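Lab notes, practical 5.
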Amino acid sequence: MSFQEWLKLQGGVMWGNVERLSITVDGNQVDAFLLKPTKTIRNKGIVYLHGGTFDLEQNMLNRFSDAFSYRAMGYHVLLLKFPDEDFPVAPNPNSDIIEIRDAYHLMLPYVEEINIITVSRGGYPGLLAFKDQHTLYNKIVCFVPPLNPDNEKWFQQQAGWAKAYLSQCKSPIWHAHRGAYVGLENDMLMIGGQIDTICPPNINSAYFAGLTGCKSYIVKGYGHNSSDSTAGRTQAMQFLAGTI
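Output from the prediction step:
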């Protein structure tokens, strides 16, 4: 299915509008796709930070069923494009952090409250941005984030691009050890997969939660695909709603 064919689909899980947005903030260009709800509309938004190094426009519906489910619950969902998707540059968390900061301006015309949900790679720059930009963003939920490159055994098992990516700046774990997230513990939820061998919770999500005192949830029976789970998505929605 081509992207144009996908855009034409209507009804069922696909109800609502999809709009490509672009903005330049202080010389930085930010591109994203906004999933706009048409039912049970909340005055709340989610900046969604995906995993991997693929272009989010490719096979969007199948890759981001979780993002579409959040839209179905009434949230405006902004699928943020990282710079390496459209430009001949290597993935870099420092540039991703700038994108996350400036994505706020894309969402502001549509909602009053903006949250962040991340999957895998997205959790690394997501948490780094959140510690400095928490006045812009309300809460953050991280599914299976890679957070601990200082754990040498785990780090050496990662793919080449991931090693290069995680080596570009100090990690969220490094900052957590130094108190950077003090006062933010009630605004962060880490979700790990019980059988995740790529980002084991005890090294990454649950370890970060233990350092910072934020909430942690382990999805039983799931690995690195925990964002696909009903249990994980339910936890994320309840956390954003303030019911847990």
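Observations recorded by the TA: The domain at 3-241 is CATH 3.40.50.1820 (Rossmann fold). Residues 10-15 have pLDDT under 50 and may be disordered.
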